[in-house]
Amino acid sequence: MKRLLILLSVLVGGNILFAQTAPLGKDLIKGFSEKMQAYESIKAEFTFTLENLQEGFTDTHKGSLKFKGKSYFLDLMGMEVYFDGKTKWQYIPEANEVTISEPTSLDGGFFDDPTQIFRSYEQDFKSKFMGEKIEGKLSLYEVELYPEDISEPYSIIKITFKKQNLEPVSIKYQGKDGINYTIDIQNFKANQNLKNDEFTFIPAEHKGIVVVDML
Known about the structure:
It contains two helices and twelve strands; from the N terminus they run ααββββββββββββ. By secondary structure, the chain is an alpha+beta fold. A twelve-stranded mixed beta sheet has the order 7-8-9-10-11-1-2-3-4-5-6-12, with helices on one face.
């Protein structure tokens, strides 16, 4: 009986200690946001999975993203998107066609501004720590975010971080319309030496290109 009481006290004490020291969602989100905002540049390779629950299909594509400040380059689903902070070029190599525009807003979602996946999530979201899990040799944290603004097109954002350094592993947007998309990050590098011309597109360098100028 004495041993049983000792064991129970250890278990209860351990649970209390865990509850006191377990990371809260808002703490992880704050750490993640501060770290992402501190980077001068980021390069990432990922898979993009689109899940349409209404139509019953799933589509997955490989992609890459690099950005510095407000500038970015996205290569995904047969399209290359260049944005130098003012002008956007959407180039389709297969059709040899580019659309040029100057977006007035970059709040339309991943394809309008892919850098949003590394944005600051501290404001406008409620957060919930979902737990820790092991995948291979990695210890991962999971956090769910719920937008304060009910007009947002998604109901939940699920972010998985590496416990060691809070680098993102996956980010999933759960849409209210039954369309979800997930970014699974295979390769993540920060503070790379990126040149400004990596975020611009020069139509004249592509013979026979079709230019759709919306400026």
